Amino acid sequence: MVGQISDLDYLITGDLVIENNNSASSYITLEGIGEDATADGWGIRVKNAVNVEIRNLGTMNCNSSEGDNIGLQQNTQYVWVHNCDFFYGDAGTDADQAKGDGALDCKKSTYVTFSYNHFWDSGKSNLLGLSEGTTVGWFITYHHNWYDHSDSPPACQRLFRSCL
Questions:
Q1: Average pLDDT over residues 5-23
Q2: Which of 50, 51, 57, 106 is most buried, by the most CB atoms less than 10 A from its CB?
Q3: pLDDT top residue among 132 and 117
Q4: Cross-strand pairs, 53
Q5: For residue 162, what pLDDT is reported?
Q6: For residue 152, what pLDDT is reported?
């Protein structure tokens, strides 16, 4: 990705979707080139995918009714999100969505690393969960992320105070 790219009409529910039907022989990298590589007004949804790397991107103004800046969902594994900047989102309808819905969420995914990311003035920085009450198969690493004026601490910090 090069430069600032505004919300495109043909994106699925406002998001770019990365999906490779969990093909182990498939490798997908979404990389920002230059200091201004920014997804402005849209998010990235990773689902049913394996071997995905997202790096060097900025995300901002993501529509809260459409989703997160970057969201890992539905049976996703072996994902690395690093060196990304997460800025505020558009205000949602819920009281806790004044600065957007979620910056970087991880749902029903495993073998994931989030490293060297910068969260700028985010309302909800990270959601982390597999299923209600489940902790089996939970292999998620948060390493050297910076939460700058973010309202809610990372879920990892709330669950395992020593993991950051």
A1: 80
A2: 106
A3: 117
A4: 29, 80
A5: 39
A6: 65
Cα distance between residue 69 and residue 123, in whole Å: 12
The rounded distance, in Å, linking the Cα atoms of 5 and 48 is: 25
- Annotate 18-34 with b (16+ C-beta within 10 A) or e (fewer): bbbebeeeeebebebee
Mean pLDDT, rounded, for 27-36? 95
Higher pLDDT, 93 or 106: 106
How many residues are there in the chain? Answer: 164
pTM (predicted TM-score): 0.84
Torsion angle of C-alpha atoms 16, 21, 24, 30, degrees rounded to 10:
0
- Give 2-159's CATH code, choosing from 2.160.20.10, 3.40.50.720, 1.20.1740.10, 3.40.50.920: 2.160.20.10
**Could you give the CA distance from residue 7 to residue 63 in angstroms, rounded to a whole number?**
10
- Which residues 6+ apart lie within 8 Å of 33 measured at CB? 1, 2, 56
